[in-house]
Amino acid sequence: MSYKNLDIYKMAFNLFIKTHKASFLLPKYELHELGSQLRRSSDSVITNIVEGYGRSHYKNDYFRFLVFSHASNDETICHLEKIIMLYPEFSSEFEVLKTEYNSLGGKINNYKKWVKENWNENNA
């Protein structure tokens, strides 16, 4: 098995692509400020899933990186909320992303619980 088989990875990767593209709708002066923060936090959701999976032989390390991924997901939602308030002309695009990141956050949270209760060295 690979991290690429995880639903949370697939969803996070697809959302990163959408979010990355959507960030370029922002005004030019915002691309290196809020746009960059949004791109980095959405990327962090994925990279923490991948890095954690690479350490999945050690349950506590794996869980810790899933916590980081969940926190980055929350950070991404916060950036999206700021964009929605600051740039209402783009709100429909960013509202869709926010809804999808909320869903992903729930899935990451459920997976964290599953790992905490069921993961062992044989899963790695």
From TrEMBL:
Which InterPro entries does UniProt cross-reference here?
23S_rRNA-intervening_sequence (IPR012657), 23S_rRNA_IVS_sf (IPR036583)
Matching entries from SUPFAM superfamilies are given as: IVS-encoded protein-like
* Domain of life, per lineage: Bacteria
UniProt source species? Chryseobacterium geocarposphaerae
What name appears for this protein in its UniProt entry?
A: Four helix bundle protein
